[in-house]
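Both lines are quoted verbatim for reference:

——
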Amino acid sequence: MVLTADVHLPEESELTVPEVNLSGATLIASSFHLGKYCEQANNEFMLCRIEEDDPRKCIKEGKVVTACTMEFFRKVKKACLSEFNQYANCIDKSSGDFSLNFCRNTQGVFDKCMLDNLNLERPPFGYFTEARVHDTKRPKPRPEPKEVYPDSTPALPESADKKPARFGSRFYWMTE
């Protein structure tokens, strides 16, 4: 990728945030509750990415998503650590493809703990596929103006002589 001098690249300090160092089974076990807990931040980030079409303009929203995720896992650790660990361990060890169907009992225990202690109900099946309108405080970006090239070749005037092609049409096989 070629960059010019007027392209602003963020400094490393702007990009540095604490990482969420968790295993796949842990993220799968928490995915429904995490998605519900950080729904507003995730939707804001994804709207920014789609509207701006430039990830550099959405760094702030990405940091908010990461902070929300860290906050969620701190609360889970404080309120439902043993239930969560049992559920994540079951997902990790019960199948080779992180299948959830072998872990419904531990899922029920974890869901009950989340509802009782954090008042966070597991979203119903298909919740994340439903269409929703996201209300944002961020202004909609202005569309970029079309590039105008003043040195472009002018078009032929309509009154110009239009001679037939010297060697005939390139679609000669279609004229039969």
